[in-house]
Write the C-alpha cells for this entry.
Amino acid sequence: MKLVSGFHHTRGNHCGSTAMRDLLHCAALDLNRARRFPVTASSSPDTTTRAVAPLADNAFESLPEIAFGALRENARAILSASDPHAGIAGMKTLADDLANWGDAPDWQFCARFGYQIVERRGTGGGAFCKMYADYLRETEAIAPDLRAAKLPNSMVKIADAWTAFALLLKRVSDEKNRALFAEARDALRDLAAREENFWRMIE
C-alpha cells in the first residue's frame, strides 16, 4: 500500500492511499501518530517503525519553509553515507556489483526485473524522478525563491538518464547480452554523480 499526505491552507491535513477511494482529513497529531505506529515487516523482523523523517511539532511556520525543509531533509537522507545500500551510496554499491550480475543463473530475469523496477512498476518512469520533477514545479509555486535553481529541469534530465539506464538493462535481457552489464554499470556511476551534484545544490 502506498500512502501520501499533504496540507491544504484552508482544509488542513489530509492523506490518501491506494487502499482508500477518497482523501481522509485528519488532525496533525493523529497523522503524526499514524506515521510512527510500530510495525513489523515479514521480510525484515527487526523493522519496528516505518521509514519516515521525524519532524518536530511547529518546526516550520509557512509553506515555503516547509518546502525548503522537506527538500533539505531529502537531500540529507540521499547524501548520507551511513547505509551502503541507500541513496547515493546505494547507487554506487549497485554500480560496483552490476558486473557480477552476469554470473547469476537467472541474469536475464534480473536485468528485465531491474528495468521494470526503474521504468514500469508504478514509478511514473525514470525511477520516480519524472513525478519528482512535477513535485518540484509545484514547489516553485509555493516557494518562488527556488525558481532560479531550475530544479525541475535538472530532475527531468536525471529522469531521462534513469530511463536510459533501465533501457540498457532491458537490452541485456532482450539481446541476451550479459556484456552490456558493464555499460549499465558505467551509466549508473554517471547517474550517481548527477544525483549527488543535484542534491548538493539543495543540502
